[in-house]
Amino acid sequence: MTYRQWIRNKFLGLQLGSKIRPARPICNAGGWDEEKLKEWLPEEAVGRIFAITPPSPWKGSDCIAWEPSSDGTFSLKTAYNSFKEDPSLPDQVFKLAWNWRGNKLVFEGVITHPTKAMMAIKACAAETLNATRREIVPRRPNFIANGLIKWYPPPKNVTKINVDGSFFSWNNIAACGGIFRDYLDRFIKGFSFNSGSCSITHAELWGIIKGIQIAIINDLHDVIIETDSQVAFNFVKDGVHSLHPCAPLIKDIRILANRIQHINWSHTLREANSLDDLLAKKGQELPFNLHIYDVPPLDICYALSLDCFRTFRLRGS
User: Which GO terms describe its molecular function (predicted)?
Assistant: First the structure.
């Protein structure tokens, strides 16, 4: 790994004397040592490093990934969008030109006359521009009627671990939280984890990792991991490309999951995941690293009582 990967559009240079040796920024628990990192790096760099899983022998070596894409692989489309003034805007002209049936050089290996290709692309571009000038009537969105949702306890002798992530754009900091409960709705443990500067998907996956780690430490052998993130749920169930930015986290989850005798994955709706949402947001206010609660924090007691009484929540509320 290099600092160039951790700090976007910046290069961090450290000049060390011949007699100075930097301490290895990993503590005995296998995570990043915040104090050691802050001795050498600015706050922004520490935040980015905390969002990365620490190196370990079973993860293999680093590889080069293409940042503009969602899965780390290079494509002409992402390269084109990286040069656009606003990459978020759709570019129908590019799609039409790329998928044009005359593009035989790419799809069939046949060379097409440049003049014919240019005329066809211009015609497609003109047609697209005319279509964008027309008045578009938006479709009425679909609403879910009578959507009453509540949290459901796990079966007997099973521990349910609900996890969630949180991201604040104003400080570019993400965090996650989770809560452990049994079939009698009893609070077992809770946690908040300030995961540093990363995406909301990374934070959701960090919540799963920390939940499994706490379960292993407390000898919990039969657990249900429940999240309201459909993306994180699909990543865990189906996996991701080896170059995907979340691939190291998925690898950690699978390694840790093998250390639990019975583990099941569950997806729920956001309204049934309100407790860990509060703990995730609480992690935004805490220093980097993991914070464990042996008793419920006061600011989640009301939401905890609502779950105990099987209170329904309205979908979208």
Answer: nucleic acid binding; RNA-DNA hybrid ribonuclease activity
Contact yes or no for 210/178 (Cβ under 8 A): yes
DSSP letters for 155-186: PTT-EEEEEEEEEETTTTEEEEEEEEE-TT--
Fill in the DSSP letter of residue 41.
Answer: S
The helix/strand/coil state of 45 is helix
Please give the class, per CATH, of domain 148-314.
Answer: alpha beta
- The two beta strands, 159-168 and 173-181, are antiparallel
Residue corresponding to tokens 């965090």: 175
Q: In this structure, what token pair is assigned to residue 93?
A: 């002209």
Domain layout of the chain by residue ranges: 3-50, 90-132, 148-314
Question: Confidence band (pLDDT; 50, 70, 90) for 29?
Answer: low
Task: Return the beta strands (E) in the chain as ranges.
Answer: 148-149, 159-168, 173-181, 187-196, 222-227, 262-267, 289-293, 313-314
The pTM (predicted TM-score) of the whole model is: 0.68
Q: 69-96, pLDDT tens digit by residue?
A: 766 777 777 776 776 656 555 566 566 5
Sheet holding 222-227, edge to edge: 262-267, 222-227, 159-168, 173-181, 187-196, 289-293
